[in-house]
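STRUCTURE REQUEST FORM
Protein name: SAM-dependent methyltransferase
Source organism: Streptomyces cellostaticus
Requested output: structure tokens
Priority: standard
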Amino acid sequence: METDHAAAAEGPGLAEEIAEYYERDQEDGRLRSGAGRLELWRTQDVLRRLLPPAPARVLDVGGGSGVHAQWLAADGYAVDLVDPVPLHVERAARLPGVTARHGDARALAAPDASVDVVLLLGPLYHLPERVDRVRALAEARRVLRPGGLVVAATINRYAALHDNLSTGLYFDAEHRPQIEAAIGDGRMRPTGGPKSLFTTAYFHEPADVPAEFADAGLTSRGQYGVEGAAWLVGDISASLDDPARRELVLRALRRTESVPSLLGVSGHLLTAGRRP
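Status: completed
Returned output:
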């Protein structure tokens, strides 16, 4: 079905608290330093094995300030980035080889069957309602060429528990209710103020993601734990600083990335699929 792309460009809008969270401008630095580099390098590692050869056209939906768009463009891909946060779009637009525009994953302005790859490396976990997640995946299907690839990131259901056990925040009586609520129904609800751990988000069970793909008309083709269990190792940042140790960490995670019993241990999960 054809879409009114002028109307789609307006989008349904981003929740106010999510916009406020990302306007703090912390996400870019999080992925480029410390333990956050594990998420960046593992996502890069998996994508480089899944993507078609450059110069395929990639639509990076919810691509933030362009952390992934930057290396994709350097690899020779034609990269268009869409993000609902104006600050992100402004930063991404400065990157060589990247075009950036304001938009919403649920109402893309791109024409039907116009791209080879759609990346959704952030939108799905900021859409708490399943209908909105399926809508975003259906939009990815619409703009993909037949046989095109979609890769979506989700946060795993027990990520908040694992993370905050590791940091010790789980033992803080003021933080624990927010963590335990997310375990119960997958919904992270911001409490406001310094005690809020994250913004509005939805944390998936790994097995639920392929069903959302299917409801959007996409065929899932694999799931990959991004950080595995390594993100819970106390000195992982130090290991990432050493190139030889970093390669050993990445090699170990490749060996376990798609083991079904280990998918949920990872903080993030990548699910790959195709437009039939």
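Reviewer notes: The radius of gyration is 18 Å. The chain is about 40% helix and 20% strand.
Form closed.
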